[in-house]
Write a structure and sequence with these properties.
With about 500 residues, the chain is an alpha/beta fold. The protein contains 14 helices and 29 strands. It folds into two domains: about 1-280, 4-Layer Sandwich (Purple Acid Phosphatase, chain A, domain 2); about 285-494, 5'-nucleotidase,  domain 2. Helices cover about 25% and strands about 30% of the residues.
C-alpha cells in the first residue's frame, strides 16, 4: 500500500496560532504534520507566499529561507504544486521558495522560460512494496487574469486541463498503478472565457485521484467523473490522508489538526525565534479609534451595514479619488478598535489585495449590485443568508458593501430586480443608466470573479501597486486617532 498526506493553502501558517487570540490553535503546518506517518508521501498544493502575518514579515525583512519552506523540508515534503498567490511577488521570490524546497516541483502548465525553477510536468513515485504512482500538477488558469504582467515575466501559465491531459497521457507510458492530479483550483466553474475552477473537467480526464485546493473548503472524499476527489481547507487546519491499496481500492479521509498531539521530532529543534519576534511586533499599538469598527456577524453586517466596511471604503475612496468604492469583508467576522495593533488590523484585513479604478455606467454598477443583493433570501418573514453564498462553500467575501452611493435592496423582488434605489449624489442612476462613474475595488473583484462578470467589460483607469494592507497601516501611522465613519445610506427592504 501507499500512504499519502495532502495539505494546501497553508499561507505560511506554520505554527499553531491565528495571530489574533492567545494560546495554541488547531492549525499550522507543524501541528498538522503530527498526523503524518513515517514513509508516507507528503504533498502540498500551493499558496505559501501570501496570507499570514508571518509571510508578510519575512517578505518585508528579506528573510530567507522562508519558515514554511523549512517546515516543509523537515516534514519530508515530496511534491509541491505552486498556487496562484505564489506568483504575487515575481520570479525571484518564487524562485527563492521553490529552490529551497527538498521536493519535486510539479506543475504541467507552468512554463519556466528561464529554466531556473526545476519545474516538472509529472513525477513517478515507486513505493517499497511495489506500487507505482503518477503525480501530475496543474495551477488554476486564472493566474493569467489576476497577476500583474511584471510578476509573470519569465513565466507562462498554459491551459490547465490540456496540460493535465497531455501529462497524464505521457505519464501513463510508465505503467503506473495509480494516477493522481494535484490541482491548485477547485470546482464551481464559471462559463465562458478563462475559468478559475476547472475541477469538473479534470475529474473527467481519467485520473484515479484529484486533489483540489484554492477554494479553502473542506470537501470530504467523493467521486466525480472517474476520480476520487477531496479538498483539505486552508491554514493547515486539516490534512487529507489517502491509502492506495494493491487491490486498486482507495481509502481517503479528512483529518482535523489537533495541536494537543505531540509534535514530530523533526520540529523539536526548529527555531521559533522569528515567531516570537513577530508576535511581539503584532501587539504594538499603531493607532486608536474613537469607538469600534464593527463586523459583528455576517448577516447583521449585511443587513444593517458595517462601520468596518465603511471605513475601508473611505480609505479606498480617499486614496483613488473614485466616485464609488466596493469593499468585501472576509468569511470570519472581525471588529477593530478602540486600540489598533498591527495584528488586529491584519486580522481585520488579512489579504494583500491591490486596487483598481474602473470606469463604468450606472447600469453596470446596478448589475454588479444585483449580485450583492442575491446574498439574501426570505424565509418565514425573516431574512437569511442565501445558500448561493454558503453552498458548496462559504463565500461571504463575495458580498460587497458600497460607499459613495445611497442605495436599497428589496429582497421581495426577483433576482436581478432587487436594486430599487441607487443615488450618486443627486443623480438617480436607475433613471440615468448611461451615466458614467468610477469605482475602486480590489484586484480580485475587478477580474469579475464571484459572480461580478460585469466588471470585465469596464474600462481600467488605473492599477495601483500599493496593497491595501500597506495603505491601512500607513493611514493609522499617519492619523493615529481615527473616527468611526458615518453609516452608509443603505436600506434592506423585506
Amino acid at each position: 500500500m501507499a500512504e499519502i498526506f495532502f495539505t494546501s493553502d497553508t499561507h505560511s501558517y506554520v505554527f499553531p496560532t491565528d495571530y489574533i487570540s492567545e494560546g495554541k490553535k488547531d492549525m499550522g503546518y507543524i501541528a498538522a504534520a503530527s498526523r503524518f506517518t513515517d514513509g508516507a508521501i507528503i504533498v502540498d498544493g500551493g499558496d505559501v507566499l501570501q496570507g499570514s502575518p508571518l509571510i508578510r514579515y519575512e517578505l518585508e525583512n528579506g528573510i530567507r529561507p522562508f519558515t514554511a519552506a523549512e517546515a516543509f523540508n523537515r516534514a519530508g515534503l515530496s511534491i509541491y504544486t505552486p498556487g496562484n498567490h505564489d506568483f504575487n511577488f515575481g520570479y525571484e521570490t518564487l524562485k527563492d521558495l521553490l529552490t529551497s524546497l527538498n521536493a519535486d516541483i510539479v506543475a504541467a502548465n507552468l512554463v519556466d522560460e528561464r529554466g531556473e525553477l526545476g519545474v516538472r510536468k509529472f513525477v513517478i513515485k515507486d513505493t517499497p512494496d511495489g506500487l507505482r504512482i503518477l503525480f501530475v500538477g496543474v495551477i488554476t488558469d486564472y493566474v493569467n487574469v489576476w497577476e500583474k504582467k511584471e510578476n509573470l515575466e519569465g513565466l507562462r501559465i498554459t491551459d490547465s486541463v490540456l496540460a493535465a491531459k497531455e501529462a497524464l497521457e505521457e505519464g501513463r507510458k510508465a505503467s503506473p498503478d495509480f494516477t493522481i492530479c494535484i490541482y491548485h483550483g477547485g470546482f464551481d466553474d464559471e462559463e465562458g472565457g478563462i475559468r478559475e475552477n476547472r475541477g469538473a473537467e479534470l475529474a473527467d480526464l481519467g485520473f484515479d485521484v484529484l486533489l483540489t485546493a484554492h477554494q479553502h473548503a473542506v470537501i470530504e472524499p467523493r467521486h466525480i467523473g472517474t476520480a476520487l476527489t477531496l479538498q483539505a481547507g486552508a491554514k493547515a487546519m486539516h490534512v487529507a490522508r489517502l491509502v492506495l491499496n494493491h487491490d486498486r481500492s482507495i481509502d481517503a479521509e479528512i483529518l482535523a489538526t489537533d495541536a494537543s498531539l505531540p509534535i514530530r521530532r523533526c520540529f523539536q529543534t526548529m527555531d521559533e525565534g522569528i515567531e516570537e519576534r513577530l508576535l511581539r511586533s503584532l501587539k504594538e499599538p499603531i493607532g486608536r479609534i474613537d469607538g469600534i469598527l464593527q463586523d459583528s456577524s455576517k448577516l447583521a453586517s449585511a443587513v444593517h451595514g458595517s462601520s468596518l466596511a465603511d471605513f475601508f471604503g473611505d480609505i479606498q475612496l480617499g486614496f483613488s479619488g473614485a466616485d464609488v468604492s466596493a469593499v468585501s469583508l472576509f468569511n470570519d467576522p472581525v471588529s477593530l478598535g478602540p486600540v489598533v495593533t498591527l495584528g488586529s488590523l491584519l486580522a481585520a484585513y488579512p489579504f494583500a489585495n491591490t486596487l483598481l479604478k474602473l470606469r463604468l455606467t450606472g447600469a453596470m454598477l446596478k448589475a454588479a449590485m444585483e449580485r450583492s443583493a442575491s446574498y439574501f433570501d426570505e424565509e418565514g418573514g425573516r431574512v437569511r443568508i442565501s445558500d448561493r453564498f454558503t453552498i458548496p462553500k462559504e463565500e461571504h467575501y463575495n458580498y460587497d458593501f458600497y460607499r459613495g452611493v445611497s442605495y436599497a435592496f428589496d429582497i421581495r423582488k426577483p433576482l436581478g430586480q432587487r436594486v430599487v434605489r441607487l443615488m450618486l449624489g443627486d443623480t438617480d442612476l436607475l433613471k440615468n443608466p448611461d451615466k458614467e462613474l468610477t469605482i475602486v475595488l480590489n484586484s480580485y473583484r475587478a477580474t469579475g470573479t464571484g459572480g461580478y462578470g460585469v466588471y470585465r467589460n469596464a474600462e481600467v483607469i488605473e492599477r495601483y501597486s500599493q496593497d491595501v494592507q500597506d495603505l491601512l497601516i500607513g493611514y493609522f501611522k499617519k492619523e493615529r486617532d481615527v473616527k468611526v465613519p458615518e453609516r452608509t445610506d443603505f436600506l434592506l427592504i423585506l
